[in-house]
Every structure is written in structure tokens, then in C-alpha cells.
Amino acid sequence: MFMDYAVAFSTLLLLEVILGVDNLIFISILVEKLPRHLQARVRNLGIGLAVFARIGLVFSVSWLMTLTKPLVTVFELSFSGKDLILFGGGLFLLLKSVNELIAWLKEKGQVHSGMVSASVTMILLQIIAIDLVFSFDSVITAVALVHKIEIIVAAIVISALIMVAMAEKIQVTITAYPGLKLLALLFLVMLGGMLVFEGVGFKLDKSYLYVVLAFGLALETLHIVLDRQQQKVKAKTSTVLRGS
Q: From CA 209, how far away is CA 228, in angstroms rounded?
């Protein structure tokens, strides 16, 4: 019995951590626009509120299951509440990511001090909303795998602690390297598009998206390493020239 619970907990924790990658990328992009002294506080608060919202979904599992039943029919295609949530959330993520990408390319989107409080509120609401969209399938899967709500809640809380521990490093890295930020934004655009397709009935395997992300990260990491080596060579060359 203990081993069954341990395996179930480990599986759920892995699912939640993978889900957390999507969330952290989105959170990092949003929080970066705030003043530096607010970033960590808002980021951790957003993660905490999202955890409470996700736990609320777990306790509302009977309601969640009703959302998988056909709700609306358009041109002989039936859409459930889940489909509408995925479509709406995916469309929001897609448009938001494209807007952030355009703003970044134009070097705009800076937050002014007079808008900080309103921006914080909007950022927190966006974090919670997107987290719920991301969590929809994982919560239903978790309840199907494990009938012990305590185990599901424990996996959610521990994954949130892992997210808090990783968040600062991920945000600093994305901010420091423009190529990584571009990759993160493109990942969110593709993820939003995938959710939209799922909302209209096309089931897509997200593993392909993670393979693309891993490949992009490998290329960008190689580029960063080569760039650092070139900078070291230039520094040594300039030192030698000054010495001569």
C-alpha cells in the first residue's frame, strides 16, 4: 500500500513539475516588467495564489468532470466546458505572448512607477488564470490516478516549493540572455496555439513541444558558450597587445 502511494505521489509530482515549467516561463515574462524590488514578491505571491486555485480545482473534481460533457454544438461539432476553457485560455496566452514578443522586439513595454499597483493586480490575475488553464488536464489526470486527495495536494504544494526555488534563477537567466527570452516567448506562442487547437478538438501531443524547447535550449546554450569563449579570446588578445 505504501509503495502504491509512493509511486502515485512521485508520478503526480513529476507531472506538476513539468506543468511548473510552463508556468515559470510565463510568470518570468510577466514579472520582468515590474520594478526589481517587487519582482520576487509578486512572483512568489502569484505562485502561492495559483497553488490555492489549483487545490480548489482538486476539491471541485465532481464539477470538473461535468465540464467534459458536450455543452455547445456549432456546425455539428460539440464543445464541452473544458474545450471552451482550453480555447479561451489558449487564445489569451497566444495573443498575450505575441503582444509581449512584439513589445520586446520594439524595446517597449516598460512599466512606469505610477502604474505599479494596477500592474501587480493584473499580473497576479493573469498568473492565476493561465495556471488554471494549464492545470485543468493535470488535475483530472491526478484524480484519475490517485483517489487520495491528500496525496494530490501534497504533490501540488511540493511542486510549488520547487517552483519558488527555481523561479529566481530562471528569470535571471531569461533576462540576461536575449536569445533565451526570445525562445521562451516563442514557446508560449506555440503553447497557446496548441491549447487553441485542443479546444476545437484536435488532440496534440505536448511532448513534441518540449522536444522543440529542449532543442532550442541546446542550441542557445551552445551559442552562449561559444560567445563566452570568443570574449575570453578577445580579452586575452587585447591584454597581450597592451603588454607589447
A: 28
Chain Cα centroid distance, residue 174: 13
Eight-class DSSP state of 34: S
Per the listing, cell 454544438 goes with 73
Torsions phi, psi for 5 (to 5 deg): -65, -40
Whole-number Å distance between alpha carbons of 18 and 12: 10
| CB-based contacts of 133, cutoff 8 Å, min separation 6 | 85, 86, 88, 89, 90, 93, 195
C-alpha cell at 27: 510568470
How many Å apart are CA 118 and CA 229, to the nearest integer?
Answer: 43
Of the candidates 54, 16, 14, 44, which has an alpha carbon nearest to the alpha carbon of residue 171?
Answer: 44
CA distance 39 to 54: 22
Cα–Cα distance for residue pair 28/41, rounded to 1 Å: 12
| CA atoms of 216 and 179, how far apart (whole Å) | 10
pLDDT tens column, 107-164: 644 544 444 454 788 888 888 888 877 777 677 767 667 767 888 888 888 888 888 8
Total length of the chain: 244
Q: Please say whether the beta carbons of 167 and 44 come within 8 A.
A: yes
The half-sphere exposure of 84 on its side-chain side, counting CA atoms within 13 A, is: 13
Q: Which residues contact 115 (CB under 8 A, 6 or more apart)?
A: none
